[in-house]
Structure formats: structure tokens, C-alpha cells
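lol forgot to send this yesterday, sorry. C-alpha cells for the thing we talked abt
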């Protein structure tokens, strides 16, 4: 019997490539995406990759905690087991935006929402695995647990994105400490050919620059992290390729990780489990 795997950000790019690979392996996959049409197209591709097996789907916008909670309720109701949660959803925001929940949109979509979802699924994930898509861009920003609402006057899209990716790494290491019964890892997928970024030049680079990693190769790394024997992985590790790497000093600061966890739990109402 295949595993049950939930992939967020599954409508395109790394998430879709991984979902198709999971389906081809016989796993039961649930795709989570924001755009209904792109999600429907992704479901069709994953269905074909899985030989006609119908994947699960759920539309959710991670800039809304209410939608994240609805997603968690759906998963808990419909899935008796969750073997892997791939927290892959994320993106960059061009200008400062505050969500309806009161937080800067990049840190909410890329960190707080996955933190909330994972916390809500925590009991169902016992004995399972959480794979968080981080980035080497974490070197460009440090998350501020006391300033999750952000500052419109100091906003930089790249610094905000980097801070959110550092938060992914910090969340992974702290989850490994607090939840030893769940294997937690994060990874840098490479500079992936995609629709990533804001602004015409950035989007052009991520579509056409030479040497970019294909979504399929990055998806293969996510799949490996989700399926490799537990003994082959480093609990709480940050991976670049199939090897652990040392993140920037602020992304391995244990005090910052603990403080960010507490601030994230308060911000999301997830509790301090």
C-alpha cells in the first residue's frame, strides 16, 4: 500500500513535479493550491502520472489562516493517516502587503501558514515526516519574531523572502527538537526554472537563464527526502542536494528558533505544542 502524502504549492513547479513522482510510485497524493484552474490542471497531470488514480485536492490561500484551518479540518476528516506533509507553498510579494490576519504577506504565506497547518496536523503526523521547502535565499534575511507584521517603510521583497526562508529552516530544527516522533527536514531545491519572482526581469531570469534546475530534478530531491529511510536522514537537517549543509548563522540560532516558534504559535493561535 502506498503512502499518503500532502503537497502544498502543488499547482506548478517543484510541488507539481514531486506530486507526479509520488503518484507514479503508487502513493496517494493530496494536492493543495491557491488558483482553482491551475489546481485542476495539476490534478489532471497527477492523475495521468498515477495511472488513472484520482488524487485528492483542496484549494486554499495561505494568506488566510481561516483557509488553512479549513484545509486542516478537511485533511483530518478525510485522511486516517498522513505519512508526509510537504510544506512547499510559497512565493515573493512585490510590495508591502498586510494580510487580513494582520501580518506581512510573505512571512504569513511562507512561514506562519505552514507552521499553523503542521501544528494542526501534528497528531496525525506522528511517526511521519515533514519536508519544508527552504532556499539559499535565507542568507538574505533574518526573521523578526517581534515584527511579524512588518514595516511598510522598510520593506524589501528579497529581504522579506529571505527572512521567510530562514524561518522555514528555523521551524524545521525547532520542530525536530519539540516533536522527536516526527522526522523534520528542510531543503534548498536549487534555482529552479519557474514563474518565480516579482518584476519582469526577475521572472525572465527564472524562466530562461542557463543552468537553472528543472522542476523535475528539484521534485526528485523532495521525493527522496520524503521517502528515504529515516536512518539515512539527519533529524532537523537542512539539505542542499542529498547532503546536509550548514545554513547561515541566524538560521541555526537556537534561541531565535525558540523565540520564533513562540511568536508563531501566538500569531496563529496554534498553541505551544
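and heres what i got for the seq, position by position
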Amino acid at each position: 500500500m502506498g503512502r499518503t502524502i500532502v503537497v502544498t504549492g502543488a499547482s506548478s513547479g517543484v510541488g507539481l513535479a514531486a506530486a507526479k513522482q509520488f503518484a507514479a510510485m503508487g502513493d496517494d497524493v493530496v494536492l493543495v493550491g491557491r488558483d482553482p484552474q491551475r489546481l485542476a490542471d495539476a490534478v489532471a497531470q497527477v492523475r495521468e502520472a498515477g495511472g488513472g488514480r484520482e488524487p485528492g485536492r483542496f484549494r486554499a490561500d495561505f494568506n488566510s489562516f481561516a483557509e488553512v484551518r479549513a484545509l486542516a479540518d478537511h485533511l483530518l476528516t478525510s485522511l486516517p493517516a498522513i505519512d508526509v506533509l510537504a510544506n512547499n507553498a510559497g512565493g515573493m510579494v512585490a510590495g508591502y502587503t498586510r494580510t487580513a490576519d494582520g501580518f506581512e504577506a510573505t512571512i504569513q504565506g511562507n512561514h506562519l501558514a505552514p507552521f499553523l497547518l503542521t501544528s494542526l496536523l501534528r497528531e496525525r503526523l506522528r511517526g511521519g515526516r515533514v519536508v519544508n521547502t527552504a532556499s539559499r535565499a535565507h542568507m538574505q534575511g533574518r526573521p523578526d519574531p517581534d515584527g511579524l507584521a512588518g514595516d511598510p517603510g522598510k520593506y524589501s521583497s528579497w529581504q522579506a523572502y529571505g527572512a521567510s526562508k530562514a524561518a522555514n529552516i528555523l521551524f524545521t530544527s525547532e520542530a525536530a527538537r519539540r516533536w522527536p516522533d516526527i522526522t523534520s527536514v528542510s531543503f534548498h531545491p536549487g534555482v529552479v526554472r519557474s514563474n518565480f519572482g516579482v518584476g519582469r526581469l526577475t521572472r525572465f531570469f527564472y524562466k530562461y537563464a542557463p543552468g537553472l534546475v528543472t522542476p523535475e530534478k528539484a521534485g526528485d530531491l523532495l521525493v527522496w527526502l520524503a521517502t528515504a529511510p529515516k536512518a539515512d536522514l539527519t533529524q532537523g537537517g537542512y539539505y542542499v542536494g542529498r547532503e546536509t549543509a550548514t545554513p547561515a548563522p541566524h538560521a541555526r540560532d537556537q534561541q531565535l528558533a525558540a523565540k520564533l516558534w513562540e511568536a508563531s504559535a501566538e500569531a496563529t493561535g496554534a498553541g505551544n505544542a
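The mean pLDDT is 92. anyway ping me if u want another try
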